[in-house]
């Protein structure tokens, strides 16, 4: 399967996170980018990998915690390939950012 595709909003989320982290640690910023790319590959191969969170959204969106990072990937598993909608820091107000 093809890797999941980052929607424009998710690309912006990732770019903002990478820029913020790169101010203090460029290596960590590059590693975050690689981790998201690896997660996109896993999501593309296994779209059901994440969990549904009806407390966050009623949409058929799944959420995957990015291993080793405080980030959550929100994606639509029903597209081929899946669409990554957001890349969000776990400390943010996820329900609000997802439109709830």
UniProtKB/TrEMBL annotation:
Q: Which Pfam families match?
A: ParE_toxin
- What's in the keyword line of the UniProt record? Toxin-antitoxin system
Query: Could you say which protein family the record assigns here?
Result: Belongs to the RelE toxin family.
The beginning of the lineage is:
Bacteria, Pseudomonadati, Pseudomonadota, Alphaproteobacteria, Micropepsales
Task: Name the source's superkingdom.
Answer: Bacteria
Q: What name goes with this protein? A: Toxin ParE1/3/4
Task: Answer whether the UniProt record assigns the keyword Cell membrane to this protein.
Answer: no
């Amino acid at each position: 399967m093809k890797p999941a595709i980052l929607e424009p909003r998710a690309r912006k989320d990732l770019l903002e996170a990478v820029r913020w982290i790169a101010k203090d640690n460029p290596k960590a910023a590059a590693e975050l980018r690689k981790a998201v790319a690896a997660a996109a590959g896993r999501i593309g191969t296994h779209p059901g990998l994440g969990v549904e969170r009806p407390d966050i959204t009623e949409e058929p969106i799944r959420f995957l915690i990015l291993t080793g990072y405080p980030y959550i990937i929100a994606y639509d598993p029903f597209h081929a390939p899946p669409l990554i909608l957001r890349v969000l820091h776990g400390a943010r107000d996820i329900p609000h950012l997802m439109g709830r």
